[in-house]
Amino acid sequence: MVLGTALIGLGVAVILLDIYWANPDSSLLSTISLRVIPHNIRAILLGTVGTGILVYAVIRLNRALLAPYVRPGKPVVEVVANHRRLGRGPKIVAIGGGTGLSTLLRGLKVHTANLTAIVSVADDGGSSGRLRRSLNIPPPGDIRACLAALSADEGLLTHLFQYRFREGEELEGHSFGNLFIAALSGVTGNFQEGVLDAGRVLGIRGQVLPSTAQDIVLVADKEMAQTGKAVRVEGESRITEGAGRIRRVQIEPNDPRAYPLALQAILSADMIVIGPGSLFTSVLPNLLIPEIKSAIQASKAFKVFVCNVATQMGETDHLDCCDHLAAIEAHVGSTLIDLVVVNNNLDINLPDGIEAVDPTLDGSCPVPQYAADLIDPANPTRHDERVLAEILIALLEERTGPLELLPVDGNGTNGYL
Questions:
Q1: Hey, what domains does the chain have and what are their CATH numbers?
Q2: Beta-strand (E) ranges in 40-146?
């Protein structure tokens, strides 16, 4: 910019000199050229004024270009530096659904903007189920929660996205974000494009993708305690309602095509995080898609399973950490996971019917476990988003060196089991 400005100035000076020498006695030209001022001082004065104008123009230009990054109370330099730092962060893919996945994303977005959430589309209850049946689109609920979690500035727009109508015959129970995604799907003619556009509106760090664009139904085989017989339940919202223990889940059709961008993200990831979330109704529906499973197996990423801190009534009653892993392996037919992150703070007060998920301490777990206090003090059934994210980033950075299996002492110190 400075070189270009100087060359333009020289070109203008050549023209002015020609005009000046052609009219040496013109008083007007003498005044304009500041002839009354000594030559050296004239050069310094013109150079100073020119530099000042150039600096002022650059400042105004920078303010205009940086306007999208300005946040109240934060210096723009700090905001831009943070934006660049996050852009250089590791590529992390998070697979799951529900509240657990959005909690994970909310913590990870502080460390990297290269995030991809791959979300289950098996939900058929509540607002998502109503929109799915009436508009023939994938359920937007879990996707909407992940978009809100990844928003760079969780202000009014994000709260609006999460707002749920409490009255109105047709609107009651609907989330505004679900309706917004449905509307964008109609405008763009494509659900996936609607989700991407919703992410742009919210200014999210990363991307949220459905695991498949096809319509899938989740089916579960439940064993009844009284009779010991198996009962088949169809529909994600009905699986956890009745009595009985879930033995197996499957999706219909059983071989849907994975969403292509989801496969690309998995194959190029530095880390793949599976969970947390409802094991049978949020996590496994993604892994049961054959192309998703194959991509995870082929990926060179560091693969981590984040075990839930508490059991879920009607879904994972009485299961410990190793039982969660066994369920995944039984459904996908192989071990996809390099490491399990599990909570070791079991001294918590939980609602009736809910238990803390124990680490597997007898050495029978086939995958190494990293144990730490992951409990959110405000909600003991959920992870602390900040602590979980910091541990995952630290484990990824440690991955560049040898994996040292460190014991966990009786005081609950972080370490490997």
A1: 2-63 (no CATH), 77-120+258-417 (3.40.50.10680)
A2: 92-96, 115-119
